[in-house]
Amino acid sequence: MNRLFQLSQQPPQWLSQSDPRLRVILALLLALVTVNLSGLAILGFLLISALSLALSAGIPFSHLLKRLLAFEGFMLLVLLFVPFSIAGDSILQLGPFAASEQGLERAITIVLRANTVVIGLLALLGTMEPEVLGHSLAKLKLPEKLVHLFLLTIRYIGVLYDEYQRLRQAMRARAFVAGSNRHSWRSFGWLIGMLLVRSLQRSQRILGAMKCRGFHGQFYLLDNQRWQNRDSIFLTVAVTLLAIPLTLDTLL
Amino acid sequence: MAHIPDGVLAAPVLITGAIASAAAVSIAVKKLDYDRIPQAAVLAAAFFIASLVTVPVGASSVHLLLNGLMGVLLGWTAVPAILVALILQAVFFGYGGLLVLGVNTFNLALPALLVGLVIAPRLKNSSGRQLFIWGAVAGGTGVCLTAVLVSLSLLISGPEYLAASKVILVTYLPLMLAEAAVTGATLSFLQRVAPELLWEQKV
To answer: Which of B13, B16, B85, B168 is the most exposed place for a label (fewest CB within 10 A)?
Structure first.
């Protein structure tokens, strides 16, 4: 069921044995440090570190590249327009528009930051089982109902993805080819409608089954997450490693 | 393009977005009955899957946001459903980022709430063509408001995003068209097949 979410075939032992809460905290720290850095060299170094972390976490490079392409459209816009929107020493003249050196530097900063955070996120959290992530969110004191919603949503994304594939196959069997026309849009509308109707019927069966098993608003979250000495050491090392670029950045 | 990556927005925007989303999520979670959690989860999953569908528009193709439809069908529950979907998309698909989750949730959830509040009551008394039109309005408005909010969050963060945010507004046009058509079709389908979904008491 988690085919959709699986990033890494086999996460290495040091990663899969660390406490999931540690990984959530580390991802947050990495994001916080990254968005506060502005030196290009330091950001570049951090990006390379995040990249090597992702590769050592067992994410195939082609997978990583595909995930990164998902938001490079946004990055392209930033790279194209920000250099022209900040005043400074002109480096490129295109008609009435001038790209400034400061603008280009800013754009590259943004691209480096965004990539570092996303790669770090995929490496630290993307390699986890989604359910484990849900449990660690519960342990980090997120509202219980939100966590229940999260866990059940993950469960049903897998189930409904299969349902969706069946419906698409049925459409293909009727020689449906998506085009930019009213017929296609209506068919997609019906497809989504059908998905919703079937899901709703399924949710009524689920509620019935859950009530039958005595559900009264509480899941038993399996408690196999133990914070160990290794995790504390890991956290200390990571905080020290993240503090170095932060101090360098403010000093330089 | 509804997912703004990390490192783009200014700190005040991030903090405001996070606070606003946290407030909206806590209100919604308080209103969410335990009995409704399975239903909300299954619908949230259905919306997550539906946003994977690639819809061709003209020469380009778009992924639907469906926040208008979510607002109409889920009411307040749309807020945590959107948050859950965004967390999953950020962590496992690399869309967006971590610190911007608040802003991204807000940009999608506020339009959903408004559409749910204004348009959902009108669906009850309409049928046929009228219902399709109201559905199209709901879908179109959801996308349009999100586009405006995304551009605004960029603009408030810094004047250097002026040009980029204008381009982003333009890229939303084909999505708005597709979303309006598909949402209209979905709602008229639901009215024929499962009208109770539209009638139902929303929280």
So the answer is: B16
